[in-house]
Structures are given as C-alpha cells and as structure tokens.
Automatic annotation (TrEMBL):
Pfam families: HATPase_c, HisKA, Response_reg. It catalyses: ATP + protein L-histidine = ADP + protein N-phospho-L-histidine. CDD domains: HisKA, REC. Residues 183-413 form the Histidine kinase domain. This is histidine kinase. It comes from Flavobacterium saccharophilum. It comes from the Bacteria. It is an enzyme of class 2 (transferase). SMART domains: HATPase_c (SM00387), HisKA (SM00388), REC (SM00448). The keyword Phosphoprotein applies. Its EC number is 2.7.13.3. The modification 4-aspartylphosphate is found at residue 62.
Length: 439
C-alpha cells in the first residue's frame, strides 16, 4: 500500500503563547521534511483573524493560554463548521482531559515532551480531513442527483399521466369513429339509397314526359347522389385504415392480385388491360389493408388510362439490403433494416412531376370530375396503409407517360414461411405481431 503523501506547502496555525515552544515545533516539523508555512497566534482575536485570512490546513494548539484555551478554540472551529484538523500539543493537559477532548472531536494529542509522533498525527489528520471533504462532496452530489432524479421521476409520472390521458382520449375518439362508421354506413346511406331508387324510377317512367331541362336536372341529381354515395364509402374506407389493425401475416401477393383482378374483371376487359407480374416476394403485412391498397392502385390505373391505348400494368417486388435502401436517400427512413420494395407501374395519363407529393393528400384531385370520376381519397388511403406498415411510398409521375409507385416496408428479420394450415397461420400471426410491436 502506497503511504499517504501530504500536499506541499500546507499551512500550519500555531496557537501558542510560549515563543520557545512554538520555535521547537517549527524546527521539529522542518527537520521532519514537512513542507509548510506557519503562523503563530496567542489570543482569541488573533486566532479568529487567522481563520479568516490565513486559511490553515491544520491547527496545533497549546492546551492552556493566559486568556484563551484549546477547548474554546476548538468550539470556534465547530461553530463555524470548519473541517480543519485540530491537534493539542501540551505538557499539562493530562490524559483524562485529552481523552475527553478527543471524544468531542479534537483530532489528537501530542505531549510537548515527545514530538516523535507529531508528523504522523499531522499526516493522519490531514488525510482524514481530505477524505471527509471528499465524502461531503460525494454526499452533496448524491443529494443533487437524488433531487434531479425526483424531479425527473415527477416529470415522468406527469408524462405517464398525460400519456394515459391521451390514450383514453384516443380510445374515446376511436369509439366515436366507430359510431360515425355505423351512422355513415346505415343512417346516411339508407336515405341516399332511397333517393337513388326514386331517381331510377323517375328516369325509367317519367323521362318521356319531362322537358329537356327536367331531364338534365334529373341526370345531374342522379350524378350528385352517386358521387355522394361514393364519397361516403371512400370516407368509410379511409376511417377503417386509420384505425390500425396489427394482425400481420406472411403473405404471397399473387392471390391478392388475382382476387382484385377478378373483382374488376369487366373494367379490365373493357380497358384491354395487360398485367405483367414479376418476382413477387412474400411480405409480412396486414392482408385486409394491403388488398385495399392493391385494389385502389389498379382502380386508379384503370380510371386514368389513355383512351384507345391498351393499358399495361407492371407489378414486381424485391428485397433491398439496408445499404441499398440507404443509397436511395429517401426521407423519413430511420429503421436500420432491410426493406421490401413493391413497385407498381402503368402507362396511363400520368401527371406532372410537380404533383408527386400532393396526389396523396385527401380530396386532392388533378382532373375535373366531368373528365374522371372519383373523390380524391383513393391514393390518400394507399398512403395511410403504407404508413400503418411503417413504410414509405414514392410517386413518380410523367404527363401522358404513366406513373410509378414505389413502396418500401421494413422487413422483419425472423419472418417465417407461409404456413399451410390455418392453425399455423394463426400462430405465426401472433409471433409476427409481437415482433413488430417490439421492433
């Protein structure tokens, strides 16, 4: 163990009225090799002034002075809460008085008849004083950190309370949304259906007797009612995808695409649409929502095809390594993982590249309703579905040369193969769902 080394040039305050004894102490410390400066005082006033101006590292005090004594001097140190070692050097104190003072807190006692242990006791006293200062500093830091921790804990409790409050508000909002869905799907659509039925009856039975203005107005009512019904249905679709369903499943998209093509078969045949599907890679998705995404994209291409030009739709997918994905420099892509890239391209009317971003804004339309029907919600739904999958969608439109949509969705590392039976599918859905929530 390395012996403790006193710092150089310590300040020694001598409380001594006998100059000879004071000189003996100074000479002994010098011979001992201690590097120090000293100041000698013999009265209470001089002692207090030295504490304020000399700032001693240690005090060596005679036990009894004519107008002052070691006990009174040490009381001053305690009252001022000073951490200064206090050693009594006396030939008259007696062992009993020395023990009593040490119990009160005096550092130690040395006899004037034997200075041999003085340096050792000075060294020990300064070491203990420094350790005490370190402990007090550590305690103060601990108190400060504890106070900061308490404040942080209170802030965390407040944030948790706010989070719980917002969660309750969100739950209530979702309940209101479900209520709105019910009203929209029943209370709003029911009278609208009746309006459409009566319009159909009038168009079938009353058109012959109507004036041209009447026929025109009835047609306009029919178009407006049809558009209103489509708007309600599209809003319902948007509200459904806004409420995220975390039932993920490892899926092959070919079955979804075939299902959508079957549903849109008449329009596909009318538009003479040709599909080119390449390298579809399985992906972990919310199947119901992704079916809606593919339906909207294909419907969009069918709607905005160029007349008399056979529509060509190219669908493909691939897995991009994280380095490849990062090289694309896409915005809002913080996840460090591989990405599944789904590409959808057509040769329709497209749009100017300046609209690549705002086509995803709800109710945003680039064409008049007279030319192309629709509500401007379809692509907003597509973007919302992609965001529900923590993904990114990029549109690249060219006027009269079609549009390409690229979708990028994070790949779950431990995604498994598609199960063959329904029980395995349910088990895998639970595993993948947990993986996504913990990602």
């Amino acid at each position: 163990m390395i012996p403790y080394q006193i710092k150089k040039d310590i300040k020694v305050l001598l409380l001594e009225d006998n100059t000879t004894d004071a000189d003996l102490i100074v000479r002994h410390l010098t011979k001992s090799g201690l590097s120090f400066s000293s100041k000698t005082v013999e009265s209470r006033k001089a002692f207090e002034e030295a504490l304020d101006t000399f700032f001693p590292d240690i005090i060596l005090s005679d036990y009894s002075l004519p107008a002052f004594d070691a006990g009174s001097a040490y009381k001053i140190i305690k009252d001022r809460e000073l951490n200064i070692p206090f050693i009594i050097i006396s030939g008259t104190i007696g062992e009993e008085n020395a023990v009593m003072l040490i119990k009160e807190g005096v550092t130690d006692y040395v006899s004037k008849n034997n200075f041999s242990s003085l340096l050792q006791k000075i060294t020990r006293g300064i070491k203990e004083a420094e350790e005490l200062i370190e402990k007090e500093d550590l305690l103060q830091k601990l108190k400060t950190q504890t106070a900061a921790l308490l404040i942080a804990n209170q802030e965390l409790e407040f944030q948790n309370a706010e989070t719980e409050k917002r969660a309750v508000e969100l739950l209530n909002a979702n309940k209101e949304l479900l209520a709105f869905n019910f009203i929209s799907s029943h209370d709003l659509q029911e009278p609208l259906r009746k309006i459409q039925i009566f319009i159909s009856i009038m168009m079938e039975k009353e058109m012959k007797t109507m004036t041209e203005d009447g026929k025109n107005n009835l047609n306009r009512i029919h178009v407006a009612a049809t558009r209103m019904r489509q708007l309600i249905e599209d809003l319902l679709d948007f509200s459904r995808v806004s409420t995220v369903n975390h039932q993920y499943e490892m899926t092959d998209l070919q079955a979804i695409i075939d299902d959508v093509k079957s549903e849109l078969n008449d329009t596909i045949h009318h538009k003479k649409a040709v599909f080119k599907i390449n390298g579809l890679r399985p992906v972990n998705i919310m199947v119901f929502q992704f079916r809606q995404l593919i339906y909207n994209l294909i419907s969009n291409s069918l709607k905005f095809s160029i007349p008399e030009v056979p529509l060509q739709i190219t669908i493909q997918s691939e897995i991009l390594k994280n380095e490849e994905f990062r090289a694309l420099n896409l915005p809002n892509s913080p996840q460090i993982c591989d990405y599944w890239n789904f590409s959808f391209q057509d040769n329709g009317i497209g749009f100017d590249a300046q609209h690549n971003q705002n086509i995803f804004v709800i109710f945003q339309r680039l064409h008049h309703t007279k030319d192309y029907s629709g509500t401007g919600i379809g692509l907003a739904i597509v973007k919302k579905i992609v965001e529900n999958h923590k993904g990114i969608i990029i549109a690249d439109g060219k006027l009269n040369k079609g549009v390409t949509f690229n979708i990028y969705i994070p790949v779950i590392k431990n995604a498994q193969k598609i199960p063959k039976n329904s029980k395995q599918k349910k088990q895998l859905a639970v595993v993948l769902n947990n993986d996504l929530q913990n990602a």
